[in-house]
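The authors assume throughout that readers already know how a fold can be written as discrete tokens. The format is easy to grasp once an entry is in front of the reader. For illustration, here is how one protein appears when written out as sequence plus structure tokens:
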Amino acid sequence: MSSGSPSPRPDGGRGWSTPSLTPHSGRSTPRSSELLTPASVSSNISWASAKAKSEEVRGYPSFATRNNGFFSRSKRQISATLPRWRSPSGYDDYAEKDEKGVYPYYGAGRRGCSPFGSGRSVLRRKRMRLFVVMLLGLIGYLYMWSALVERYRRSPFGNGRKFVIVLESNIEGGVMELKGAREWAVERNSIANKAAYAKRWGYDLEVVNMLAKKRYSHEWREGWEKVDIIRETMGKYPHAEWFWWIDLNTWVMEESYSLQDHLFNRLSDITYRDINVYNPLNISHPPTEPYLDEVSRSATGDGDVSSINMVLTQDCGGFNLGSFFLRRSLWSERLLDSWWDPILYEQKHMQWEHKEQDALENLYISQPWVRSSTAFLPQRYANAFPPGACGAGGDPEVHYSEAERDFVVNMAGCKFGRDCWAEMHEYRELSKKLNRTWWEQVVMPSSYTSRSTTAARSTQFHHTLDPTLTSPYLNRNAQGGGNERTKMPTPESASFLAKKPTVAPTYDGVDFEDNVAVHNARDAIIREQWVRSMMSRLVGEELGKCYHREGVNHMEKCGVLREKYFELLSERKIKGYLGQEKNVFEKA
């Protein structure tokens, strides 16, 4: 090449482009993104710009040592490990800027860099970080949210510790009655139900032992021990304000209802203090004695919701203590003292069928100060009944309503002609069906059959209960297709009388040296024991059916059966015969 002035040489010795040469021809291998047309090169690169660039290059020192020291070498090694960013290179280094001072853009497939490339990379990293944060948040919600909510509800801000659930257990255990598999199933499921509800809302659960035992050397306080247990529970939980007593044969149907929202935040709206609103006992109210103050003579007390210290429900027979609330106060201490008075128990325990419940009714009638702080809930708010209790069902004031999602169902009286475990199992499954999550509704469609679809079949047993809720021998009869009740042996049947022993059911006058006489006496005693137990069971079932049939009038219509039942209960145990036999043989 001949020219008046030599071409400038840039650093690196790559040479400068000419209109007839390919850009960056000094490289051994040209990059694909740098293959541009001569027309585009000639339009963007001029000799003037190349000359100016050459002058800048000549300003650098011509010699630089390669040994830059430890710091420089370390800096190069560190910088080599860092991520690299794409930056404009190639022709942008030498191309002239446009009128606005911006380098030209060659397109995505060329050496020039897109103005949005680095932005897309940053956005991509931000989306990844956001995804990781959302994933961690979802995992935390699934595994920690419930625990955090429960901890908050138990804190002073959540007010969960102001409520204590007192649940009875071990009923008829010990010396009074042996519990079978169905009784244990009822107890186990009921306790689990209350424990789950208490845990969800941060309440304390006190499971108390109702094992029949003597409080004093001369008396059994069955029923009255409920009063003593509440007093002990108040001492055990000094921070609590309200205590909810609930029987074992109950089921919390709606665990999503808190006591605060369902009841106590609106006591003034849902309770009534004038018992004349619903008065199955026909109690004269309010008291009219002239020596009473205005509050005691008022039908609604002082009208202040803060003075309510006891909340309970009424059924067709009067007060029902299967589910009631008691508030910690001086009034409550006075009530418990009066309720626990031995005079009430000693004088009335044989006349009062419902024991401590009748005692409370007596206090309400005779003590005006009890009325002024007692409020009543509509029964279905906290103590709904199933069909078979207080009527055949369908009473909108008494019986459980699936459509209106009642809070608690109480299988009251299920021991009389009904099956407690069958009822509890049915309501447990119904509660699961009603409270399924949206995911459970999709993947596990319920196969639950409503009570209304099977109620018509119950007429074949001469009562209005679902066959699944009747006693086991009726269920066996239903499976066999018969329409008559199973004939159970009674003391009057011919087959029973034919096998009746000829000896008296006692060891009195028996020669214990005669093994045959001892054996016959033992058989007669065991048989007599079975007869009394069977008769008490049969009469108890008939009494339950009478209660179911008569409803409100059961106290008048079922009096004969009730007296017979209590008579059989008192005589169904042959006291001391095993001990008598043991003592005799030990002496011998």
In short: Residues 413-486 form one domain.
